[in-house]
Structure formats: structure tokens, C-alpha cells
Amino acid sequence: MIDTQNYIQTVALRDVKCYAFHGYYPEEQLTGIYFSVDVVVTFTPNTDTENLERTVNYEILNNIILGEMKNTRKMLETVVKSILDRVVDNYPFIHTAEVGIKKLNPPMPGEIGHSFVQLSYRSANS
Ligand SMILES: Nc1nc2c(c(=O)[nH]1)N=C([C@H](O)[C@@H](O)CO)CN2
């Protein structure tokens, strides 16, 4: 018999595209730019795998991302922390979580595909 306590579940949203106004420079906060957000969480799965209330609902992850992307910040570090904190608050049973944000074609000299800032969390009892 397999002990389900030994399973690790991953739930993620990848490449959530948003137009937003985060940027260190005032002109970035006026014009806005496209971002892409990734959230990945892991946890021990519930035995009832047909119950949306007993997992991490990725609709909730999407709501958190879209809500925090509307709060204009200077630094991407602040954005990833605010998303990560809300994910962990909502789902205290999570073992690990990663939130990454890409700023697409950031306004800098040269041709930059994207910049990327990520923050990770590991629970003390995982
Ligand atoms: N580590 C970071 N570096 C930079 C950020 C940031 O959010 N985190 N932001 C900027 C400017 O907003 C940039 O997008 C201008 O192109 C610069 N460096």
C-alpha cells in the first residue's frame, strides 16, 4: 500500500500575461508594459482528489496574481513578495512556493527579451 503522505503534489500557473505599470522610473509607471507571472506550489495531496476545497485552486492563484499586478510598485522584488505572501496566507499547508515575474522587453538599451525576478518559500516543517 502506498502511503499518500509520501506524495508531493504540484499546482502551478505559468505565463500569466498582464499589462501593468510596475517600474522604478516614473515614465514606466505612466506607459506600462507587459509582464508574465509564474506561480508554482507543492504540498502533500489530500486523499480526496475530487474535491476543489482540498487542494490549491489555481483560480485563486490567478485572482491573487491579477490583484497584486494592479498594485503598481517600483520593484519586481516587491511584486513577487506580495504575491508569495498572499499564496502562503491562503494555503498554510504548502511545502514550497515559487513566484517569478518577467518584464517583457524592458526599456533598456539593447534588445532584452525579458528581465526575471523570483522569490521562493519553504515551510519550516517540510
Ligand atoms: N532587480 C531589479 N532590477 C531592476 C528593476 C527591478 O524591478 N528589479 N527594475 C528596473 C527598472 O524598472 C527597469 O525595468 C528599467 O528598464 C531596473 N532594474
Describe the structure.
The chain has helices spanning 26-31, 58-69, 76-90, and strands at 9-20, 33-43, 96-104, 114-122. The chain starts with 8 loop residues before the first strand and ends with a strand. It has a 4-stranded antiparallel sheet with strand order 1-2-3-4. The protein has one domain (4-122): GTP Cyclohydrolase I, domain 2, CATH 3.30.1130. With 126 residues, it is of the alpha+beta class. α2 (58-69) packs antiparallel against α3. It contains 3 helices and 4 strands; from the N terminus they run βαβααββ. Bound molecules: the ligand Nc1nc2c(c(=O)[nH]1)N=C([C@H](O)[C@@H](O)CO)CN2. The ligand Nc1nc2c(c(=O)[nH]1)N=C([C@H](O)[C@@H](O)CO)CN2 binds at residues 23-25, 28, 75-77, 103, 106-108, 117.
Structural class: alpha+beta
Provide the CATH top-level class: Alpha Beta
Q: Please mark out the parts with pLDDT under 50 across 5 or more consecutive residues, or reply none.
A: none
**What is the CATH architecture assignment?**
2-Layer Sandwich
What is the topology?
Blueprint: E1 9-20, H1 26-31, E2 33-43, H2 58-69, H3 76-90, E3 96-104, E4 114-122
Antiparallel strand pairs: 1-2, 2-3, 3-4
Helix pairs in contact: 2-3
The chain binds the ligand Nc1nc2c(c(=O)[nH]1)N=C([C@H](O)[C@@H](O)CO)CN2.
The ligand Nc1nc2c(c(=O)[nH]1)N=C([C@H](O)[C@@H](O)CO)CN2 binds next to helix 3.
Domain Dihydroneopterin aldolase/epimerase: 11-121
Pfam families: FolB
Protein name: Dihydroneopterin aldolase
